[in-house]
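Quick bug: DUF3775 domain-containing protein output formatted oddly.
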Amino acid sequence: MQRPVEREWELSIDPETVRLLAGKARAISAALNTDYDGGHEHEVEIDGDARDRHQHDGLIEEEEEDLTEEEFRELVADLNVDELADLVALAWIGRGDYDVSEWANAVADARQHGAKHVATYLLGMPMLCDWLIDGLDALGAS
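Here's what came back:
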């Protein structure tokens, strides 16, 4: 009879929380750029000779405050120190900075990174969503 293989890691953070944060990170990175040009004045030909001036306002959308980043920051702020370290370590493993066998080192290094600006640090990662999911996959926690 084979003994079950013990994992060299144990997550303090719920994988569902990681997936929620990954989804928020994806929404943040995919947010529409609201700096688009407001349109241009165009001439419209009506009867061959007559011309009318037509003002085009470009895309008109209701301006709604995007709370996704704020929600991401609040969710991260609600995590305890162990969960924060796991979250950063997952991103690092997903990014390839550490191998799964180095989980304990990744978590220890993440703890040294500190808990003060974790949300800002993570949001600075261009592929955070993918790296979090890849980290979960690497640990078999997805």
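Actually, after a second look the formatting is fine. Residues 1-6, 32-46, 56-64 have pLDDT under 50 and may be disordered. Closing.
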